[in-house]
Design goal:
By secondary structure, this protein is mainly alpha-helical. It has two domains: about 70 residues; about 45 residues. The protein is built from four helices and no strands. It is elongated. The relative contact order is 0.05. Keywords: Coiled coil. This is Syntaxin-8.
Length: about 140
């Protein structure tokens, strides 16, 4: 009975991954998401497909490195230099925040950046004005 459950769960996983691939293709083709975001999501779907194949191989006891496969499934894979974004730790300032809270925090940060850019703009404008006045004074002196 456990084998039947595992086999059906693996089949269900495969079907869900195929659905994700179809939905992703549709979202990219209808421009619901950008191509860059589509590529990022495609990488995640490919990672899921790889893990599904590893699970399938582990279930069938294919390959000689089943312990390595099992541990790599839980630690983010055996790829070198590629980190899984879902396994990264969340920062302290965003931990426990909901979607609306994160959006509000992002807006606040953008407002602070805009205020900083406005201050920088006024400083640069003042320096431009000073430079023009110095140039005018030099012309008069000459």
């Amino acid at each position: 009975q456990l084998n039947v459950t595992i086999r059906s769960s693996l089949q269900n996983l495969r079907e869900k991954i195929d659905q994700l691939k179809d939905l992703l293709l549709r979202a990219v083709s209808t421009h619901q998401i950008t191509q860059l975001e589509g590529d990022r999501r495609q990488n995640l779907v490919d990672d899921l497909l790889t893990r599904q194949k590893q699970l399938q191989a582990s279930y069938k006891n294919e390959g000689t490195e089943t312990d390595v496969i099992r541990s790599s499934l839980m630690t983010g894979g055996v790829k070198r230099g590629v980190t899984n974004p879902w396994l990264l730790e969340e920062s302290e300032e965003t931990r426990g925040l909901g979607f609306d809270d994160l959006r509000q925090q992002q807006r606040r940060i953008i407002e602070e950046q805009d205020a900083g850019l406005d201050a920088l703009s006024s400083i640069i404008s003042r320096q431009k004005q000073m430079g023009q006045e110095i140039g005018n004074e030099l012309d008069e002196q000459n």
